[in-house]
Design goal:
Blueprint (H helix, E strand, L loop, with lengths): L5 H14 L3 E4 L9 H13 L4 E4 H4 L5 H31 L7 E3 L5 E3 H6 L7 H16 L4 E7 L4 E7 L5 E2 L2 E3 L2 E3 L3 E2 L2 E3 L5 E6 L2 E8 L18 H8 L5 E2 L4 E2 L2 H16 L3 H23 L11 E5 L3 H12 L3 E4 L6 H7 L3 E11 L6 H21 L7 E11 L6 E4 L7 H19 L8 E12 L21 E7 L2 E9 L8 E3 L2 E5 L2 E5 L3 E5 L5 E5 L1
Parallel strand pairs: 1-2, 5-16, 16-17, 23-25
Antiparallel strand pairs: 3-4, 5-6, 6-11, 7-10, 8-9, 12-13, 14-15, 17-28, 18-21, 19-20, 19-21, 22-23, 24-27, 25-26, 27-28
Helix pairs in contact: 1-2, 6-11, 7-8, 7-9, 8-9, 9-10
Length: about 550
């Protein structure tokens, strides 16, 4: 409506250049509706400061709500220098080493994309690690015939939880990076500060576990690297859930040091024995994890009993049996690659890109011609991206979705748009889907209240050749030979516990608890009263007896 003040833009860019700021975010109030001024600003920056990296809000997040859009553009600019530089150096190294093929990078929406895309929009990688883990969990579930899953990734500092109901994990546009909102489509992952390095402390006479973490350095006390405060890993070691050797014997753990740390910092201040204190540390961590799983299940209208748990990460399999029991889950599936399941998820990821545009339509006179034009534009951009990525027609898929809300609501829900055609019938079906989604999430819907359409989104996917499925070797007996034995403390008593090497397991084998299964990247603890069965893909399937 008003011409761009190009002189003011040039003055601002000159000052930014004088200060040596390497990246510039550009966000104008209504650029989601018309990006021409942001595009012209980019041209002016290129003239005045050609070395600058540029982040346009109309490209990063072309949606209304200027705070969320400006924050996405700013976060994108903030990480641009380091991420873009890293990607460029990585490509140069690959070329110098003569390694063929394209460099693909994971995004937080659960798909991979090209290096060129990430150089321009590095913020797409913000939560890519946990997203890759969710993709890996979905692969494990699909192979095991389970499509209702709870992915549970526990490392040294945090636990990342995601619910998968069907073929695809749910996406959200209400994600956060630290304290900042990030409105880009990303896999809906809930994170808490609970991991193997979570520190146990007594604060005001109350035992807490996490969110403070000992990290990798100095790490748990039992690592012998300078840690002094007891952690969750120390408690597991004291209770016998871990052997005194990690990494298949390459790393010795100091049980005596762990016991002393728990005694000094937890048991003595609370008037408990060391075993009581260690059990309390594990119980509190497990209940924190239960609460996090309820956030993505019960609080969103799902019964955990309908789902199987996929615990992974270095510490996930230690807690899988506990959560199976506490939540009454169907089963826990522990993959052969449990400790590095995120890496497997990377290998099974498809190319993916999302194209979104704000398009507010209000009842009763929905402007379907306008919606059709928006979808056509997004669809053309999606197909153009697939063309640029050289994806053949038989290897591509395109999905339409819309954001809807009741009149006067301040938030919207994303629901599928049926097919790739805009018609009154398709709109009616999408509205019915919105009512159903609202009912599942909030236990009620309001069919009598007008529904507004807020945005349209087209998700493009290019299917890549996936690694072949891994099968376990033929059965070698009902139970493998233990590699050792040790005592575990359970239900107030010490029990004899066999220790198995994961490499010795074969399809059909049964491991009654208590039992410990060691592998290079994780340790699985099977509780008394549970049995693990090895399936055709080598997964340990834990169930209550």
């Amino acid at each position: 409506m008003q011409p761009l003040d190009e002189a003011a833009v040039r003055r601002a860019v000159a000052e930014i250049r004088r200060q040596g700021i390497p990246a510039i975010a550009v966000c104008y109030l209504h650029s989601y509706a018309d990006p021409v001024h942001e595009q012209r600003t980019r041209a002016l920056i290129a003239e005045e400061y050609p070395e600058a990296m540029i982040s346009l809000s109309s490209e990063v997040l072309p949606a209304f709500r200027e705070f969320e859009r400006s924050m996405a553009a700013r976060l994108n600019a903030y990480v641009m220098p380091k991420v873009s530089g890293y990607v460029t150096r990585l490509e140069d190294r690959l070329e110098a080493e003569g390694i063929p093929g394209r460099l693909l990078l994971m995004q937080s929406n659960g798909g991979a994309t090209s290096a060129a895309t990430i150089r321009n929009q590095p913020i797409q990688t913000a939560l890519s690690g946990p997203a890759a883990g969710v993709v890996g969990a979905a692969v494990v579930g699909r192979q095991a015939g389970e499509d209702k899953l709870i992915g549970f990734d526990v490392g040294g500092t945090s636990a990342d939880i995601c619910l998968i109901d069907g073929a695809e994990p749910a996406l959200t546009i209400e994600g956060r990076v630290g304290e900042w909102p990030l409105g880009l489509p990303m896999i809906d992952i809930h994170t808490i500060g609970a991991g193997g390095g979570s520190i146990a402390r007594v604060v005001g006479g109350v035992l807490t576990v996490g969110p403070a973490s000992a990290g990798a350095v100095p790490g748990p006390v039992c690592y012998g690297r300078g840690g002094t405060e007891p952690t969750l890993t120390d408690a597991h070691l004291v209770l016998g859930h871990l052997t005194t050797r990690l990494l298949m014997g390459e790393m010795e753990l100091d049980r005596a040091a762990a016991e002393q740390a728990i005694a000094t910092h937890v048991a003595e201040p609370l008037g408990l024995t060391v075993l009581e204190a260690a059990s309390g540390i594990v119980d509190i961590a497990n209940n924190n994890m239960v609460g996090a799983i309820r956030v993505v299940s019960v609080e969103r209208g799902h019964d955990p009993a309908d789902f199987a748990l996929v615990p992974f990460g270095g510490a996930g399999p230690l807690h899988g049996g506990f959560l199976l029991r506490l939540l009454g889950l169907r089963a826990a599936l522990i993959a052969p690659e449990a400790g590095v399941l995120s890496s497997m998820g990377l290998l099974h990821s498809d190319l993916k890109n999302d194209f979104t545009r704000t398009c507010i339509l209000r009842a009763p006179d929905y402007d379907l011609d306008r919606l059709s034009a928006v979808f056509d534009n997004l669809d053309a951009r999606a197909e153009g991206w697939l063309d640029a990525e050289s994806i053949p027609a038989e290897g591509r898929s395109v999905l339409w979705t819309v954001g809807m809300r009741y009149q006067h609501q301040g938030f919207e829900l994303t629901v599928p748009w049926p097919g790739r055609d805009v018609s009154p019938e398709a709109l009616t079906e999408a509205i019915e889907g919105f009512h159903a989604a609202h009912r599942q999430l909030y236990t009620f819907d309001q069919p009598e209240v007008p529904v507004e359409l807020v945005f349209a989104r087209v998700s493009a996917r290019g299917h890549l050749g996936q690694p072949s499925d891994r099968h376990a070797a033929p059965a070698g007996g009902s139970t493998p030979e233990p590699t050792g034995r040790q005592r575990v403390h359970a239900a107030g008593q010490w029990l004899d516990c066999p220790v198995y090497d994961r490499r010795d397991l074969r399809a059909g084998m049964r491991l009654p608890g208590p039992a410990i299964v060691e592998q290079l990247d994780a340790t699985t603890y099977i509780l008394p009263g549970q049995t693990a069965t090895v399936d055709a893909f080598g997964n340990l399937v834990l169930r209550e007896d």
